[in-house]
Design a protein that fits this description.
Layout (H helix, E strand, L loop, with lengths): L6 E4 L6 H8 L4 E4 L1 H7 L13 E4 L6 E6 L2 E9 H4 L23 H11 L7 H4 L3 E10 L3 E11 L1 H9 L9 E8 L5 H10 L15 H13 L4 E4 L10 E4 H11 L18 H5 L6 H17 L6 H5 L1 H16 L4 H6 L2 H4 L2 H27 L7 H4 L3 H20 L6 H13 L1
Parallel strand pairs: 1-2, 6-8, 9-10
Antiparallel strand pairs: 3-7, 4-5, 5-8, 6-7
C-alpha cells in the first residue's frame, strides 16, 4: 500500500469530554477544532487601512452620472490633480491594494506622463490625451459643487497617480484628471472584473491578473507572518512589500514546476505559471511559504554552485538551474530525510539557524552534482546546443538519470555523505 486512510472531523467548536472519550476508541479519526483553526488560519484577504473620506471641488464643471441600480453607480468628473495627490495611501501604496500592479517606475508610458505634467502649458489639455483614473468606493456622494467619497481605492491609474504625486511640485489648478468614481464594494467580484478590464495603459501580463487571487494573497500573508524581515513574497509588479529577500510569485511558480511537478524543460514558458498551470502550481495544500523558501534556498545554492562549471554559457542559461532543481528532487526522494522535507519543510527553513544548516547541506550535495554535470557537459563538445537540449524532455530526463545515478554510487561507496548524514551531523549539537 502506498497510502494510509484516515478521517478528519472538522468543527468550529472546542472538543469536549464526550468527544475526547470517543476519539480514544477511534484512533483513525483526527479532530480539528476551533483552537487549531484559530492558530493555523492564514487569511486570503488583505488587511487594509481605513482612508479618511475626501471631497473634491467640481464647481463650474459638468459631471456625468450613470446609475446601474440602487447600489451601483458611476460618476465621471474632472478632478484637480492637487486634490488627487492628497488622497491617503499613495506613499504606502495601500490606495492601490486592488490594482493589478504597483508603480512600475520609468516605463515609456510613465516618462511621457511625467513630461506632460512638467509642461504647464499642457495642463488644461491633460484630460484630452490621458485615459483617466478609476476609483471604486463604498460610497460616492454628488452635490452641487462637491463630490465626496469614502472607502475608496484606485483600481486603474496607479502609474498616473504615482507620477502626479512624485511631481506634485509642478501641479497647478489647471491640471485636472478625468476620474471615474464607481460606487460598489472594492473587494467584490464585479470590482475585480472592472480592475482587469480597465488596466491596459501599460502592457499587462497574465501574472498581473492573478495579483488579487486569494491563493496569492494568502501566501503573501503567510510570508509576512512566518518570515518577517527575512523573506517577502511579491505578487504584484512594483509593489512595496517591505524588507527581506524578495521572491516573486513568478519565480516561485517556476521553482515549483521544476521541483514539484518535475517539468524543468517547460520553465521557459513563464506565461503558463499564471495561466493553465496556476492551479497545479499554487493550488495544492502543500504549497506554503515554507515550501517556497525551501525551493528558494535550493535555487540560491544551485546558482552559487554553477559558478564552478567550466562551460559558463551553459551555467548561466536559466533552464540549467531548473534542471538541477529537478535532479535534487530525485536525490532527495531517495534520502532518509525526504518524508520530513515533503511533509514539513518548515523544519528545515523556518528557524534561521536550521536554515543555515540546511543551506550548507544542500550546497554539499550541489557541489557533488556539479562535478558530474561538468564532466557530462564537457563530453558533449563545443557545438553542444544546450538551449535546445534543456527544452527536450527526453534529454533532460536522461541527464537527470545519469547525474542521480552517479551521486548514488558515490554515496553507496561512502565517498560522499548523503544529505541525511550531512543533516544529522550538522544538527547534532542543536537537537542533542
Amino acid at each position: 500500500m502506498t497510502h494510509e486512510l484516515r478521517a478528519e472531523f472538522l468543527s468550529n467548536v472546542v472538543l469536549d469530554g464526550n468527544g475526547s472519550n470517543f476519539l480514544q476508541e477511534a484512533p483513525k479519526i483526527t479532530f480539528i477544532g476551533k483552537t487549531h483553526l484559530l492558530s493555523s488560519y492564514i487569511s486570503d484577504s488583505r488587511d487594509l487601512p481605513t482612508h479618511d473620506p475626501r471631497s473634491f471641488d467640481i464647481a463650474g464643471f459638468r459631471v456625468t452620472e450613470y446609475i446601474v441600480d440602487a447600489n451601483t453607480k458611476a460618476v465621471i468628473a474632472p478632478i484637480k490633480a492637487v486634490e488627487l495627490v492628497a488622497l491617503d495611501g499613495i506613499s504606502d501604496q495601500s490606495l492601490f491594494a486592488f490594482n493589478v500592479r504597483g508603480p512600475l517606475g520609468k516605463t515609456q508610458v510613465n516618462r511621457d506622463i511625467v513630461k506632460s505634467i512638467r509642461d504647464k502649458t499642457l495642463h488644461k489639455m491633460f484630460p484630452l490625451f490621458h485615459n483617466g483614473i478609476t476609483v471604486i468606493a463604498s460610497d460616492v456622494t454628488l452635490e452641487a459643487e462637491r463630490l465626496s467619497v469614502t472607502g475608496y481605492h484606485v483600481v486603474n491609474g496607479c502609474q498616473s497617480l504615482t507620477a502626479l504625486f512624485n511631481t506634485r511640485g509642478s501641479l497647478t489648478d489647471d491640471l485636472r484628471v478625468l476620474v471615474k468614481f464607481i460606487k460598489m464594494d472594492p473587494a467584490s467580484a464585479v470590482a475585480q472584473n472592472i480592475t482587469e478590464y480597465s488596466n491596459n495603459q501599460n502592457p499587462t501580463k497574465a501574472r498581473d491578473f492573478k495579483a488579487n487571487h486569494p491563493i496569492q494573497i494568502r501566501l503573501q500573508n503567510e510570508f509576512r507572518d512566518s518570515y518577517p524581515g527575512q523573506y517577502v513574497f511579491e505578487i504584484k509588479r512594483g509593489e512595496d512589500i517591505g524588507s527581506g529577500t524578495r521572491i516573486s510569485n513568478e519565480e516561485a511558480g517556476l521553482y515549483l514546476r521544476a521541483f514539484d511537478l518535475k517539468e524543468p524543460w517547460a520553465t521557459h514558458r513563464k506565461y503558463e505559471v499564471f495561466d493553465e498551470k496556476h492551479a497545479d502550481l499554487f493550488g495544492r495544500p502543500d504549497v506554503t511559504a515554507d515550501r517556497i523558501v525551501f525551493c528558494q534556498i535550493l535555487a540560491e545554492e544551485i546558482t552559487e554552485g554553477l559558478k564552478n562549471l567550466k562551460k559558463q554559457l551553459f551555467a548561466r542559461y536559466v533552464l540549467t538551474k531548473y534542471l538541477l532543481m529537478y535532479v535534487l528532487r530525485e536525490i532527495f526522494e531517495n534520502d532518509d530525510q525526504w518524508e520530513k522535507m515533503q511533509s514539513n519543510p518548515a523544519k528545515f527553513v523556518r528557524d534561521a539557524t536550521l536554515r543555515n544548516y540546511f543551506r550548507t547541506c544542500v550546497r554539499n550535495v550541489v557541489d557533488e552534482v556539479i562535478i558530474d554535470l561538468d564532466s557530462e557537459v564537457n563530453d558533449l563538445g563545443d557545438d553542444f546546443d544546450y538551449r535546445d537540449k534543456l527544452r527536450d524532455q527526453e534529454w533532460v530526463k536522461e541527464m537527470r538519470r545519469e547525474l542521480v545515478t552517479d551521486y548514488r554510487k558515490q554515496v553507496s561507496r561512502h565517498r560522499v555523505a548523503s544529505f541525511n548524514e550531512e543533516w544529522v551531523a550538522a544538527t547534532a549539537a542543536t537537537t542533542g
